[in-house]
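Field log, afternoon session.

UNIT: design team B
ACTIVITY: writing a sequence onto a fixed backbone
BACKBONE:
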């Protein structure tokens, strides 16, 4: 069978696609790190006399630390992997340590996620928490690759103030996001949430707790009220890196009331590489060229 130059070219292009030449890459990453998250209690409004609940100089009753829905999970081309943690600590005045990880890889893609907490907000030095996710996907001309991560870290620190006092919430934070799609056949997405709230606990049904006495929301307070907490860029890299130090100042605690410090950190990413229409068209033209050549030979 003799092939003309056009047919030979189409055949060569088809052969390259059949060999699986990768031509797509999507990288989606997001991470939120918090350090020195501490709840400091003071006897006076000037903040000169610090009290320490753990050594008995200040009484907190009903103290508890609940990790609700703390989990990481990854999905790579339909294959899932999950690790989760949901429990309450028995002794709220000892350091907390947990570290969740989920990782998968294939010749074309990798997915990695982590959620961790160490330390304790009621102890000197406070607590450190981190959530992160990364999806990196490559693709073939006529193949599809997809991966996604669901990563959430939610912790609630509960206590009842036995006497009037003042409290200060402080922490350092760092936020990173990157979505880079180098091919029109790919898509990437990063979704995040980071919020620290201190307020009275709900009591009764319906919940009628007053407004929080302190709240920090990454999107509303830093990125602007118009921020949606996500980014989806195709063919247009998006990168952000921002951090800061938060200090609530002295907040009044009322004796006999229940309080709750809630931390929410979500770091979710997804990436997909789909078939490129132009490559599929070339593949089809190549097949037509081969079919025509076969018909000419048969005549």
């Amino acid at each position: 069978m003799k092939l003309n130059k056009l047919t030979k070219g189409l055949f060569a292009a088809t052969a390259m696609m059949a060999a699986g030449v990768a031509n797509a890459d999507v990288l989606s990453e997001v991470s939120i790190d918090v350090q020195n998250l501490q709840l400091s209690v003071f006897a006076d409004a000037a903040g000169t006399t610090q009290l320490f609940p753990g050594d008995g100089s200040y009484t907190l009753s009903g103290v508890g630390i609940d990790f609700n829905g703390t989990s990481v999970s990854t999905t790579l081309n339909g294959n899932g992997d999950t690790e989760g943690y949901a429990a309450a600590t028995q002794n709220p005045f000892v350091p907390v340590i947990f570290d969740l990880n989920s990782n998968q890889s294939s010749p074309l893609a990798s997915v990695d996620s982590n959620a961790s907490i160490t330390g304790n907000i009621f102890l000197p030095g406070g607590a450190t928490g981190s959530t992160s996710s990364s999806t990196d996907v490559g693709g073939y001309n006529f193949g599809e690759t997809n991966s996604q991560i669901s990563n959430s870290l939610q912790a609630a620190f509960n206590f009842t103030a036995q006497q009037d006092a003042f409290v200060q919430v402080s922490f350092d934070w760092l936020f990173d996001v990157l979505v880079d799609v180098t091919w029109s056949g790919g898509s990437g997405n990063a979704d995040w949430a980071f919020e620290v709230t201190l307020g009275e606990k709900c009591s009764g049904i319906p919940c009628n707790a007053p407004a929080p006495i302190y709240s920090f929301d990454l999107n509303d307070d830093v990125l602007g009220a118009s921020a949606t907490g996500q980014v989806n860029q195709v063919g247009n890299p998006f990168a952000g890196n921002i951090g800061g130090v938060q200090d609530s100042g002295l907040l009044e605690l009322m004796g006999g009331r229940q309080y709750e410090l809630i931390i929410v950190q979500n770091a979710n990413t997804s990436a997909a590489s789909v078939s490129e229409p132009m490559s599929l068209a070339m593949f089809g033209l190549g097949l037509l060229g081969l079919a025509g050549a076969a018909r000419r030979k048969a005549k």
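LOG NOTE: DSSP finds three helices and 15 strands in the chain.
NEXT ACTIVITY: expression trials, pending approval
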